[in-house]
Design goal:
single chain; bacterial flagellum protein export; 13 helices; proton-transporting ATP synthase activity, rotational mechanism; alpha/beta; cytoplasm; ATP-binding; elongated; six-stranded antiparallel barrel
């Protein structure tokens, strides 16, 4: 008992800085702040505090160096800062309790709460209870040779995804969609319906007006009760928008390391990359592909690889982070740089199509362009045959849709086209789902099996006055 108390005291005192080094602001250029006086003490990722002229404080982070001067960027507005403003840097005599980027003391009591990227509550429910250990925000992915394999298939509660992009525990999927196609609604359905222990939702650069609508209407009390929501609105500084992604991964990693099955929903990776672009250009990085500096595409895999299975525990079990990262494709271009880079890293992709949404079918998932790389191994042979047949029918109908609408196709000319015309409406009905409707894996495959059941082609009605 005495040893345990001593360890706790040592851990607490290790987090207390021995002193604060005082430095000064020497220049402000755009979003970047030049700081003199830190010497060789600070490294990239270290946190400092900027002191406004009125005495209020702004947290900031060291993002680079130029000669003997450090370059910092603030987590808040730069109003009130000027040449000569004080900068405080905490100095530790011993090993730091965490690496660059800071840490969060997460606990199970965070479930059901709404927080900002710095771990501060936004829901008015009081302070967040601290956890037993610091969790570094800028963590490395688990060792590839030591992390567990994917778990059993996971019930997402959405028929179109259960059927055509079946997901396993620990899998990472990308959700590719333009604006206004129903992406947020689909993510709220996944948060409510997915069979998981806890859901972590990261809203990166979300419109402020839509935050309460998402939390209260789309997510609802049922979804919030098992979720941790991290929010950085579109008017937040780029560091806050970037940090929203790191914080969400850190929270999900905490629950994974506890042996739980966590669902991570991030909306969106595109806005995370846009924040990185603003940071990189402020440091002086050269713009490359569509204005994105090279560091953006180096940081993407470091973020996305943190999701997935955890390390194998002594009892052979392992926690999982099943993740779905949304990508806001610019101009509905599925091959734009961020979408192309994310697609190559993740384990599958779900494409939402504007034309399907305009036709009134929700969720507007284009199953012909969506895939999960784990489907062959997690579904039975009968289920795989069922979905292959449904895909073939939808593909045939898509190829002949224009001719069918124009009346240029004559029934009986091609048996495959006749089959597609007969079954396509039933398949579309299976893919359509209300926002508050839940469909299990078994129900999803049963519905598709019924839709593809062989039924006789209805004979044309005979007029009553026919001879």
């Amino acid at each position: 008992m005495t040893l345990n108390v001593c360890e706790r005291v040592n851990a607490t005192t290790a987090r207390i800085p021995a002193a604060f080094v005082s430095a000064r602001v020497t220049a402000l250029s755009g979003l970047a702040i030049t700081v003199a006086g830190l010497g060789g003490l600070a490294v990239v990722g270290d946190r400092v505090t900027l002191i406004r002229r009125d005495g209020s404080e702004i947290p900031a982070e060291i993002i680079g160096f130029s000669g003997h001067h450090a370059r910092a960027m603030a987590f808040g507005s730069l109003d009130g800062l000027g040449n000569g403003s004080e900068v405080r840097f905490p100095f530790f005599t011993g090993p730091r309790a965490h690496g660059p980027g800071g840490s969060l003391r997460i606990s199970d009591a965070w479930v059901g709460r709404i927080i900002d990227p710095l771990g501060r509550p936004l829901d008015g429910k009081g302070p967040l209870p601290p956890g037993p250990r610091p969790c570094p925000v800028r963590a490395s992915p688990p060792d590839a040779t030591m992390r567990a394999r994917l778990g059993p298939r996971i019930d997402l509660g959405v028929r179109a995804m259960n059927l055509f992009t079946t997901c396993r525990q620990g899998q990472r999927l990308g959700l590719f969609a333009g604006s206004g196609v129903g992406k947020s609604t689909l993510m709220s359905m996944l948060a409510r319906n997915t069979a998981c222990d806890v859901a972590v939702i990261s809203l990166v650069g979300e419109r402020g007006r839509e935050v309460r609508e998402f939390v209260e209407d789309d997510l609802g009390p049922e979804g919030l009760a098992k979720s941790v929501v991290v929010i950085a609105t579109s008017d937040s500084p780029p560091l806050m928008r970037r940090e929203a992604a790191y914080t969400a991964l850190t929270v999900a990693e905490y629950f994974r390391d506890e042996g739980k099955s966590a669902l991570l929903l991030m909306d969106s990776v595109t806005r995370f990359c846009q924040a990185l672009r603003e940071i990189g250009l402020s440091v002086g990085e050269p713009p490359a592909t569509r204005g994105y500096p090279p560091s953006v595409f180096a940081e993407l895999p470091r973020l996305l690889e943190r999701a997935g299975p955890g390390l194998v525990r002594p009892d052979g079990s392992a926690g999982q982070i099943s993740a779905l990262f949304s990508v806001l494709v610019e101009g509905d271009d599925q091959n734009e740089p961020v979408a192309d880079a994310v697609r190559g890293i993740l384990d599958g992709h779900v494409v939402m199509d504007r034309r399907i949404a305009e036709s009134g079918r929700y969720p507007a998932i284009d199953v012909l362009r969506s895939l999960s790389r784990t489907v062959p191994g997690c579904n039975s042979a009968d289920e795989n045959a069922l979905t292959r047949r449904a895909r073939a029918i939808l593909a045939t109908y898509s190829e002949m849709a224009d001719m069918i609408r124009l009346g240029a196709y004559r029934p009986g000319s091609d048996p495959a086209v006749d089959e597609a015309i007969r079954f396509q409406p039933a398949i579309e009905a299976v893919l359509s789902q209300g926002r508050h409707e839940r469909a299990t894996l078994e129900q999803s495959f049963a519905a598709l099996r019924d839709a593809l059941a062989e039924t006789p082609i209805p004979e044309p009605a005979v007029p009553a006055n026919a001879a």
